[in-house]
């Protein structure tokens, strides 16, 4: 009996279908691992990634990635000292709500908007690893790292992961107000994938939500590669598809269900002769008005309050009305 037990255990541990390294990665329909993802040589991190990660290789917890009790008056993080402003301006109902939210923090003194994350890839400064710098919809940064010599399906299927050093010293699992493997960055990974002939990056969260990015060629963006969001797939729900205009500005978001029906739509446009951008849907709209230096001055929402902002000479918010 004991002998059979050990034989069975040995088979389970060595049989390919039970091996985490040889098990086929469950990719979205139409995608496969890209076995030759590096057609061009990559170099150091871009200026954007250097600003967030170079001086402090282990990122400190982001201004919203902290325990709820560390936030005072809903706008100041007592651990990091960051001031933040965040507001939902528009919600388009559907199988998965399409939310337009803006966020500002005193760390980088910039406004960030939902559906506009950034993803950069490069070789590490030591040139021994491949790295990806992910800036989410709120501007929070996260570093992913993997083997430089990615050349087989087993290595590619592991993807780029958040370095263990970051998880040990700078991250916790309470950023979304719950302790869950689905919200833990330890369970997130970035994979090199392709559909047809197009090379893309897939960011998979613990929730199994996939964000798929395509390469965006920029001027003066250092020697790294920047990618922009093209698809966001939610298991068993709607998928969002992103379209961009001639100059790289986001101009449309569509929510499509499993029956390939468009159930949500957001149009983003710039009013002619002004520095005002409008996000418009059948459920409502929101407009953002900027000055000549691209500082957000006023928000006009059909669903929520419409605040205006004033800044000092260091781009810090000093007044909200």
Write structural notes for this entry:
The protein starts with a helix and ends with a strand. The longest helix has 13 residues, at 2-14. It is built from 4 helices and 21 strands. Strands 1, 7, 8, 9, 10, 11, 12, 13, 14, 15, 16, 17, 18 and 19 form a 14-stranded antiparallel beta sheet that branches. It has 321 residues and is mainly beta. It has one domain. It is globular, with a radius of gyration of 22 Å.
Compact description:
By secondary structure, the protein is mainly β.
Mean pLDDT, nearest integer? 79
Q: Give the number of DSSP strands.
A: 21
Termini separation comes to 76 Å
Percentage beta strand: 35-45%
- Succession of helices and strands: HEHEEEEEEEEHHEEEEEEEEEEEE
Largest sheet features = 14 strands, antiparallel
Uncertain ranges: 5-23, 40-68
What class would the helix/strand composition place it in? mainly beta
Characteristics:
4 helices, mainly beta, 14-stranded antiparallel β-sheet
Structural topology:
Layout: H1 2-14, E1 32-33, H2 47-54, E2 71-72, E3 76-77, E4 84-92, E5 98-105, E6 110-113, E7 118-123, E8 129-135, E9 141-147, H3 153-158, H4 164-169, E10 189-195, E11 198-204, E12 210-216, E13 225-233, E14 239-244, E15 250-256, E16 262-270, E17 276-281, E18 284-290, E19 296-301, E20 309-311, E21 317-320
Antiparallel strand pairs: 1-10, 2-3, 4-5, 5-6, 7-8, 7-13, 8-9, 10-11, 11-12, 12-13, 13-14, 14-15, 15-16, 16-17, 17-18, 18-19, 20-21
């Amino acid at each position: 009996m004991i002998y059979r037990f050990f034989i069975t255990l040995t088979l389970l541990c060595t049989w390919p279908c039970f091996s985490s390294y040889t098990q086929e990665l469950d990719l979205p329909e139409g995608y496969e691992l890209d076995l030759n993802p590096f057609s061009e040589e990559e170099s150091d991190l871009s200026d954007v990634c250097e600003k967030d990660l170079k001086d402090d290789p282990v990122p400190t917890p982001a201004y919203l990635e902290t325990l709820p009790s560390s936030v005072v008056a809903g706008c100041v993080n007592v651990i990091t000292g960051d001031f933040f402003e965040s507001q939902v301006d528009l919600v388009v109902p559907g199988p998965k709500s399409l939310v337009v939210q803006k966020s500002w923090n005193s760390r980088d003194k910039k406004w960030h908007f939902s559906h506009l994350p950034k993803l950069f890839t490069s070789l590490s400064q030591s040139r021994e690893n491949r790295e990806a710098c992910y800036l989410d919809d709120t501007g929070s940064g996260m570093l992913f790292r993997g083997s430089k010599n990615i050349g087989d399906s087993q290595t590619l299927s592991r993807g780029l992961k958040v370095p263990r050093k970051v998880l040990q010293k700078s991250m916790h699992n309470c950023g979304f107000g719950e302790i869950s493997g689905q919200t833990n960055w330890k369970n997130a990974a970035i994979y090199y994938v392709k559909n047809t002939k197009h090379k893309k990056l897939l960011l998979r969260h613990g929730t199994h939500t996939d964000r798929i990015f395509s390469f965006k060629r920029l001027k003066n963006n250092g020697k790294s590669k920047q990618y922009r969001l093209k698809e966001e797939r939610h298991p068993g729900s709607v998928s969002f598809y992103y379209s961009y205009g001639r100059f790289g500005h986001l101009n449309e978001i569509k929510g499509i269900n499993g029956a390939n029906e468009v159930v949500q739509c957001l149009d983003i446009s710039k009013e002619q002769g002004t520095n005002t951008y409008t996000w418009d849907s059948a459920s409502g709209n929101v407009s953002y008005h900027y000055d000549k230096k691209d500082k957000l001055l006023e928000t006009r929402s059909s669903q929520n309050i419409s605040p205006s902002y004033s800044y000092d000479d260091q781009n810090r918010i000093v007044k909200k009305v």
